[in-house]
Give the backbone structure.
Amino acid sequence: MAAGAAAGDAVTAVTEQGLADELEWVERARQADTSAFESLYRLHVDKIYGLCLRMTGNASEAEDCTQDAFIQAWRKLAKFRGDSAFSSWLHRIAVNAVLVRMRKSRREQDRIQAVTDISPAAKTVGDSGNLEDLQKAVDELPAGARRVFVLHAVYGYSHDETSSMLGIAVGTSKAQLHRAKRLLAQQLKQNGYES
Amino acid sequence: MNENQSFDDKLMEAARALETEVAPEHDLWPNIENAIARPSRTRWNTVFAQAAAVLLLVGASSGLTYLAMNEKTPVGTLITDNTGLNYERASFGGHYTLGPGYQDARSGLRAQLEEELERLSPEARAEVEKNLNAIRAAINEINRALADEPDNVLLQELLLSTYREELSVMMKVDRVVNAAMLRTDI
């Protein structure tokens, strides 16, 4: 018990230290310190790339979106007031970067057209070994449904937050989630997943 | 996993278990560093050039004012334009006021300006603010000179033209930011 408490204290101390470092980096980056911004990049790049990858379903586009997001973050740093966590602020910028880039992307249109042509998946949902198949199925969802599913189901944003980030109505967010679940269920069941 | 759990719940549970942190295959920092180190060459340069032209105009006008004052140019001088017509230079008679339309436009633009400047990069914002501050400093200078010589027509006209230039720069900021937002914002 005492050891657990000590470990908990240590984790809290590390977390607090991490937050203090992040705040200091943000402050220094605002003064045009690129090395501080690089530290912020190193701290957040996996989260931002992960989000971009889930939202685009394409590694190359995700890299482009990640770069765009960090460049935009650098340019908008003065606007960051610290009202929310830096990571949340960065997430919003990344979602915006994805939306901007995907509008330009012809491949996105191709993906929407190809939605009915979904490749076979493995046999069960929920087993860690088959998460990759679920990810693949998510990647192949139509863009609108995929973005809502990723933000709401994978990242845990509420419908209010999701709709605000995507610039859509709350009702549309709910409808897209419903559509995403239906398409995923169809796809997974067709390929032998059991309910 | 619970047998009775609906497929929907299983799906959501599985979704929550997906990795949210993924390392990119390549280090993206060098490209980002290049992009943020490069001075952004945007249409703001046009605005800065115009603001610089305004400052030049203010400076030149101030010089002319100084010369005119030294020559003791009388108020209400007859002027001949290139059509050969004579007319008297307009005077505000020492009771200088700006119209309500102008005041409304200026107040509205100034209120929007702060918000719009926040959308710029720190460097671009600093440049715009620097130029607007220079114009406003010129306005203050002319106002101080007018306090000593309220009937000086050249000073009055210079003040009017400087106010107009301030308004024009603020309108350009408004137009350019909104045009940029249409292209890149959601």
